[in-house]
Design goal:
heterodimer, A: about 280 residues, mainly alpha, about 0% strand, globular, B: about 300 residues, 2 strands, about 70% helix
Chain lengths: ~280, ~300
C-alpha cells in the first residue's frame, strides 16, 4: 500500500480525490459567495459559481433583523467560560485519577465513565424542570453548567487521564524529593507538560459549546439571549420561509472565524481532535 | 483549642497531628479535592436528573393544567401502543446504520487515498477535515440551501440535463440527504483516525506480500483490514453513539418530515416534550433512548472480543 504508485494510477487517485473533495469544499464556497450575491441572483440558472455583482446589503440586514452582535457575544463568552472551566476541572480530575492512588480511585473512575453513557438528551426533561425552579430559564446558566459537568467534561477528564498515565513519572518524583507538595507538582510540572492534551480538550470543548443547538432552543426564548446556532435560523420572512441571503451571511459570519483559526493552526486541530478520538 | 490551654502539651499534639496528616493521607485528600468538582457536578447534573427522569416517566404531567399525577406504568403502555413508535425507531435505525456504513466506508476510502505517496497530502487532509470545524447549523443551512428544489445541486444537475427531486420534501431522498450532510460534516475525524492507523501498519508486511505476489486488493483485505480493526471498532462506536444525538440537522433540514420519515428518537422526544408539553411521556422516551444506548454499549463490548483481530 505504501509503495510508490505507477503514474497512471496516481492520476486516477488524484482525479478521484478531486471529485470527492467537491462536497467538502463547495458548500463553504457557496455559502460565502451566495451571501454577497443580490437576492435575485442566489437562485439564478445557470448558477453563478463566482458572483458577478457584489451586494453586501445582506450583512447589514443580519445586524438589523436580530441583535446579532449580542448573540455573537453570547456564543463567544459561553464557549470561552465552558472551555476554561472544563480544562480546569478535567485536568484536575484527570490528574488525580491517573496519579494519586486514593482509596476508591478505580471504582469512582468507572462510575464517572458510566456517566458518559448518559446522552444529554436523556436528562433534558428533568434539567429543564430544575432550571425552571431555579429561575434560570432564559439565562445562559444551563448552557454553561451542563456541559461543564456533564458528558463532555467527563470525556475531557478521560482524555486528560490517559495523557497523564502516559506521561513519565520521573520528573514529578524528582520534584517530590525536592519537597514540592502534590498541588505544586501538578501546577508547576504536570500541567505545563500537558499542553497538547489541554489543547485537544480546548478545541473539542469549544466546538461542542459553539455547536450546541438543542439546549439553546429549549432554554432560551428571548432573541437577545440567543446563541449563534439558534439565531441563524431566525432570519425568516413573514411566511416562515428562510431569507437565504441573510441566513447565509449570518452563517458565514459564524463559520468563517473558526475556519480561519483552523487553517492557521490546522496541525493542532487535526491532531488534537484525532488524539481525543483515539483515546476516547 | 485544647492545645492552647495546655501549652506544655503543644509539641506532642503537633506531632500527633503531623502523624495523622501523613504524606499519604495529604495526597489522598488532594486526590479527593481534585475530583470533587467533577464528581459533585456529575451527581447534580447527570445522576439526579437520571433518577428524576425515571420518576417523571411514571407520571402523567400536564404542564398547561399544572397537574402531576402518579400513573405507574401507563406511559410505558402508551409508548408500546404509540403508532409513531415504529416509524420513529425505524427512522432512527435507518439513520444510524446509514450514517455508520457511509461514514466509515468513505473515511476508509479517503484515508487509503491520502495514504498514498501524493504531493499535497497535508492540504488535502486539511480540506477534507474542514467541515468538522464549520459551525454545525451554518453547515446545515448551506446544505438546506443547496438541496432546495431550485437550489445549487439541482441547478448543476439541470446543467447536465438531469432533473433532481425536491430532496428534502421527498420521503426517499430526505433521509438520504440528512445522512449525507452529516457524513460530509464529520467524516474528516474518522479519516484522520484511519490515516493514523494505516501509518501504524508495518511496511514489512506489505513487502512480504508483494514478494509473494499478492495483489493490492488482497493485501488490503488480508493485511490492512485486520491490523486496523481496532480503529474500525473504535470509530464505529464513536459514530454510532454520535448518530443517536442527531438533532440540529433534522430540525433545520426537514423538521422530521416529510411525514415521519426523518423523525428520529431525539427529535420525537423534543417534539413530544417541548412542543406538545408532554413531559411525562417525554421522560418515558428519554428512558427508551437511555436503554438503547446501554444496549448498544453492551453489544459493542461483546463484539469487541469477537471481531477485533488484535488489541494493542
Amino acid at each position: 500500500m505504501n509503495a510508490e504508485l505507477p503514474a497512471r494510477l496516481q492520476v486516477l487517485v488524484y482525479g478521484l480525490v478531486c471529485v470527492l473533495l467537491i462536497p467538502f469544499v463547495f458548500p463553504t464556497w457557496w455559502m460565502v459567495t451566495s451571501s454577497v450575491k443580490p437576492v435575485s441572483a442566489i437562485f439564478a440558472f445557470p448558477p453563478e459559481l463566482i458572483p458577478t455583482t457584489l451586494d453586501w446589503s445582506s450583512y447589514g440586514q443580519v445586524f438589523k433583523l436580530q441583535p446579532f452582535a449580542q448573540q455573537y457575544w453570547n456564543s463567544a463568552y459561553i464557549a470561552f467560560i465552558v472551555t476554561m472551566a472544563t480544562m480546569l476541572i478535567s485536568s484536575m480530575a484527570g490528574y488525580a485519577f491517573a496519579r494519586i492512588r486514593f482509596p476508591g480511585a478505580d471504582a469512582i473512575f468507572a462510575a464517572v465513565l458510566l456517566a458518559m453513557l448518559v446522552p444529554s438528551e436523556v436528562t433534558i426533561v428533568p434539567l429543564f424542570q430544575m432550571f425552571l425552579k431555579l429561575g434560570m430559564i432564559n439565562t445562559h446558566w444551563p448552557l454553561i453548567l451542563v456541559p461543564i459537568f456533564g458528558a463532555p467534561s467527563v470525556f475531557a477528564t478521560f482524555v486528560m487521564r490517559q495523557f497523564f498515565i502516559a506521561l513519565p513519572v520521573e520528573l514529578e518524583e524528582a520534584a517530590r524529593v525536592d519537597g514540592l507538595g502534590r498541588v505544586m507538582i501538578f501546577r508547576k510540572i504536570a500541567l505545563p507538560l500537558a499542553r497538547p492534551a489541554l489543547a485537544s480538550v480546548a478545541i473539542f470543548t469549544f466546538l461542542h459549546s459553539w455547536n450546541l443547538y438543542l439546549e439553546p432552543i429549549v432554554y432560551l426564548s428571548k432573541p437577545d439571549r440567543f446563541t449563534l446556532p439558534q439565531a441563524l435560523t431566525q432570519f425568516t420572512d413573514a411566511y416562515g420561509g428562510p431569507m437565504w441571503n441573510i441566513q447565509l451571511a449570518a452563517a458565514t459570519l459564524t463559520a468563517l472565524p473558526v475556519l480561519i483559526v483552523f487553517i492557521i493552526a490546522q496541525k493542532q486541530f487535526v491532531e488534537g481532535l484525532a488524539n481525543t478520538g483515539l483515546k476516547g | 483549642m485544647a492545645v492552647a490551654r495546655v501549652p506544655s502539651s503543644e509539641p506532642y499534639a503537633a506531632r500527633a497531628a503531623k502523624r495523622f496528616w501523613t504524606a499519604a493521607r495529604r495526597d489522598n485528600l488532594v486526590g479527593y479535592l481534585f475530583i470533587a468538582p467533577q464528581l459533585i457536578g456529575l451527581v447534580i447534573f447527570v445522576l439526579v436528573p437520571l433518577a428524576l427522569v425515571f420518576w417523571f416517566s411514571l407520571h402523567e404531567w400536564n404542564v398547561l393544567a399544572n397537574t402531576f399525577t402518579y400513573t405507574g406504568t401507563q406511559n410505558y403502555a402508551l409508548l408500546l401502543a404509540d403508532p409513531s413508535l415504529m416509524p420513529v425507531l425505524l427512522a432512527t435505525f435507518i439513520f444510524s446504520v446509514g450514517l455508520v456504513v457511509f461514514n466509515l466506508g468513505l473515511a476508509l476510502l479517503l484515508a487509503v487515498l491520502l495514504n498514498q505517496k501524493l504531493a499535497g497530502t497535508t492540504l488535502l487532509r486539511t480540506l477534507f477535515f474542514s467541515p468538522v470545524v464549520v459551525s454545525l447549523v451554518a453547515w446545515t443551512i448551506v446544505w438546506g440551501f443547496l438541496l432546495q428544489k431550485n437550489g445549487g445541486i439541482n441547478a448543476m444537475l439541470g446543467a447536465v440535463g438531469l432533473e433532481g427531486p425536491n430532496w428534502l420534501r421527498t420521503p426517499a431522498t430526505a433521509m438520504l440527504s440528512v445522512i449525507v450532510v452529516q457524513v460530509i460534516k464529520n467524516v474528516g475525524l474518522n479519516m484522520v483516525l484511519f490515516l493514523a492507523a494505516l501509518q501504524g501498519v508495518p511496511k514489512e508486511l506489505y513487502e512480504a506480500a508483494r514478494i509473494d505476489g499478492a495483489p493490492r486488493f488482497k493485501q488490503f483485505r488480508r493485511i490492512t483490514l485486520p491490523l486496523i480493526s481496532p480503529t474500525i471498532l473504535l470509530t464505529s462506536i464513536i459514530t454510532i453513539a454520535g448518530s443517536l444525538h442527531v438533532f440540529a440537522q433534522i430540525a433545520v433540514l426537514t423538521q422530521g418530515g416529510p411525514g415521519m420519515s426523518t423523525t428520529v428518537l431525539v427529535y420525537y422526544l423534543y417534539q413530544q416534550t417541548f412542543q406538545f408539553h408532554r413531559f411525562g411521556y417525554g421522560s418515558t422516551l428519554s428512558i427508551l433512548l437511555f436503554l438503547i444506548v446501554c444496549g448498544l454499549t453492551l453489544a459493542q463490548w461483546q463484539m469487541r472480543k469477537r471481531l477485533v483481530f488484535h488489541e494493542r
